[in-house]
Amino acid sequence: MKWGNLNNLYVGVMMKRLSAHEVDPKTSRQHEFQGVKRMIDLLGGEKREDIPTCYRFFLDHGEVPVVGSVIKAASTWYDTRENDPKRPAEWRLYFKTNAVWDVCEPGDLLVVALRSDSSLDLYFAPSGSVAELMLLEAFGATAHRFLEQAALDELLREKRQKQEGFQPATQIVSDLPRVESVEQLSLVLSMDEDSLELSADLAKAVDPAPEALADSDSYVDRVARLYLDKWPGEKLGTSREVADALISVVDLESAEGVDVALTSWLEIGEAAYWVWEKSVCVRFLNPLRWDKSISDEQLADQYGKRWMSFRQSRVSRAGGVMECLLETIFRRNGLLFDTKAAAKVDGGKLPDFLFPNGASYRNPAFPTDKLRILGSKTSFKDRWPQILDEGRRVARKHGVTRDTKITKSMFSQMDSKGFTVVMPEPIIHRYGERPANLMNLRAFMDEILELQKVF
User: Fold this and answer.
1) I want to staple 61 with a disulfide (CB 3.0 to 4.6 A). Which of 66, 158, 193, 402 is the partner?
2) What is the pLDDT of residues 261-317, one digit of tens each?
3) Chain segment 367-395, per-residue pLDDT in tens
4) Using CA atoms, how far apart are residues 254 and 350, in angstroms rounded to an integer?
């Protein structure tokens, strides 16, 4: 099962940073993108004229990525030195629209996606924006095969490769891009003019959402089948039951390490939930389709309510399951901690994880520098300050997340408030330069184990 994999929509993808020579009219008057090696790998070594191309310019609406404008125009892939056989080829992708100059700046992200019909989708996003992070997350794994080694080395820079024991993401992770980001991308592309005040062209440029491809040998398929067998009705088990069912099929921790294991569990569990959810939707809709007493409006209303219920359940369940997975990892590795009521601190606050325990926190004689609080949230957005309010004795708080849409300015704000972000390493490597207040799960656990040596 490759749920949410953009390979279903595109036969190839590459990404690059835009240079001043490409987007600054003061530097160059040529409507061209430089044909770097990974673009040549994608588009090939033959000239192509009048390629149908859709240009989508993303921007941030607050903290929500939206499409600011959509333009459909032709592009041309050609060798500027085709008439000079003595010189090596120099490929360029020519664009006719001036919007690239009007909207883009040097350093912005460009994603070039090739469809099966040989048409192109070009996605643009400002550097450092939430929209950029969404595109990197949605397309990242798909684009890796079109990165030359030098670019790949740069992408993985400062990713703990020099630290003993570091293992890169496994095939399980790279085959399962975050389905939530793919869904978000699909939703953004399908929003209409009224909802986000976008250009009138957007409604004409809606593309189909990625489809699921079944593979009976995959982890996702096996986990989904287990979910359907254990919970054939319209309600899954508790977060603990769901996490345990997932681990029973995909027990990766000992072989892959905690960072890769947590990432894989989250990716596979989320994709399997979508399969379970789709099964419930089909069983819900089938009888309504043939009920002539229900109008189209009533059917749409009922489905809309059911979809919202699924959406809310998916978000809340993802957080609960991640906490259970972390609890399993911590216990297997010998960390001392309390959760829920046992972790109660000042003002009745209940941190997700309190190290080493609530009794130590409430003991005034216990050294404050040996206390740690870890909040767990699948998405931070405006929620990370909630962790700051938990436990006055702990000066610097930690929060674990899988959120890949934290901007540099957000990291700076967090750091100024004494907040450190914890992420699984395979998710960290989707960022560029690593902020000082970002650490992987293994490093956080090693810090806790060092503090608890006296116990």
Assistant:
1) 66
2) 998 898 888 888 888 888 887 777 777 666 666 776 776 677 666 666 666 677 678
3) 999 999 999 998 887 789 999 989 999 99
4) 30
Nearest to 427 by CA among 141, 2, 182: 141
What gap in Å lies between CA 119 and CA 205, rounded to an integer? 13
Tokens of 98: 């001036």
Angle between helical axes of 296-332 and 239-249 (0-180°, round to 10): 70
Q: Is residue 25 within 8 Å of residue 102, measured between CB atoms?
A: no
Token pair of 262 as six digits: 């947590």
Residues 401/262, Cβ–Cβ less than 8 Å: no
Residue 442 Cα distances to 142, 204, 329, 430, 454, angstroms: 26, 47, 10, 17, 20
Amino acid at 180: E
Rg (CA), the chain: 24
Q: 141 near 175, Cβ under 8 Å?
A: yes
Q: Hey, what are 270's tokens?
A: 């989320």
**Helix 258-289 crosses helix 219-230 at what angle (to 10 degrees)?**
50
Q: Which stretches within 156-218 are classed as H helix? A: 171-174, 179-190, 193-196
| Helix or strand run (H / E) with residue 342 | none
pTM of the predicted model as reported, rounded to 2 decimal places? 0.61
Q: At what angle do helices 258-289 and 296-332 cross, to 10 degrees?
A: 160
Phi and psi angles of residue 52, each rounded to the nearest 5 degrees, phi first = -60, 125
For the chain, domains (ranges, CATH) are 6-205 (2.40.330.10), 219-332 (no CATH), 340-451 (3.40.91.80)
Token look-up 């570091």 returns 166
The dihedral sign for the CA sequence 362, 368, 370, 371: positive
